[in-house]
Each structure stands twice: as C-alpha cells, then as structure tokens.
Amino acid sequence: MIILALLIALFISFVVHIYFLFQYLLKVNKKYLYGFINTAVTNILIAGIIMFALVYKPELIRGINPGQVLWVFSGLIFLVTFGVQVNVLRRIYCTFKNPANYHLNFFGKKVLNRDAVSKFDVFAFFGAMPFFLVAGAYFIARLINYILYGRL
C-alpha cells in the first residue's frame, strides 16, 4: 500500500511538473521556473524512495495489485484531463462574454474574431479529449464493476 501511495504522489508531482513547464514556456516567469525545478527535485526524491524501498523490501512488489494500480491511475488521468477540459472551456466562455472579441461581418452579423480563441486552447482541448474519454471510460466501467460485484 505504501508503494501505491508513493506512485500516486509521483504521478501527481509529475503532472504538476508538466504544468509548471507549460506555464513557464507560455509566460516566461521565474516563479514557474522555480516550480519546475522544485518538482524535478521532488520527482527524483520520490523515485529514489520507491527504488530504495523496493531494493530493501522486494516483498512490497508482490503486494501491489496491478488492476488496482491501473484503476487508480486511470482515475487520476481522468480527473487531470477533466480539469484541463474545464479550464479551457472556462477561458473560452470568458472570451465569448467579452464584447471586444466580436465584430460585424459583411452581412451585418456579429461574429467572433479569429484570434479570440488561442490555438493552444484548441490544441489542449482536443489533445486531452482521447485521454479523457479512454481513461474515463475505463475508470467508470471498473467503478461500476466494483459497485455491482465487489471486485475490480
């Protein structure tokens, strides 16, 4: 169980690490660079703890249920990609509410400016969609299986 908790901590730290990387590349702010470096050190420390624990107590490997680990990680991936989807949709909604992002076309209709939604938002939304659907379907199917039959 301790290995599963450490693997979850490593996964969450890795997701935060990727977040700081993207934020630094988008905004070039030292705060995100320091966060990126700190999460890199955290990833190395957690991975080292996992390696030492498994070297000195190899019976911990036998205690890991691969189905449970896969289910937990699919749930985490589902939640992370759901968060990405909600964040992108929130930014797009705020953009649509701003009247400065609209203009009148040739026929007098109010249309959205071309640069109102960034390409990164579109890429993030559609890039996260397959992971959201696959991981979410697996997580929900296993959750229903666990509720109905008591096993993963």
Order of helices and strands: HHHHEEH
Query: Taking all residues together, what is the mean pLDDT?
Result: 88
**Residue runs with pLDDT of under 50 for 5 or more positions:** none
Strand order of the largest sheet: 1-2
Overall structural class, as computed from helix and strand content, comes to mainly alpha
Can you count the beta strands? 2
Oligomer: single chain
Q: What value does the Rg take, in angstroms?
A: 21 Å
Count of discrete structural domains:
2
> How much beta, percentage-wise?
under 5%
Number of helices: 5
What overall geometry do the principal axes of the alpha carbons give? flat
Q: Approximately how much helix is present in the residues? A: over 70%
Q: What about the largest sheet?
A: 2 strands, antiparallel
Please report the distance between the alpha carbons of the first and last residues. 16 Å
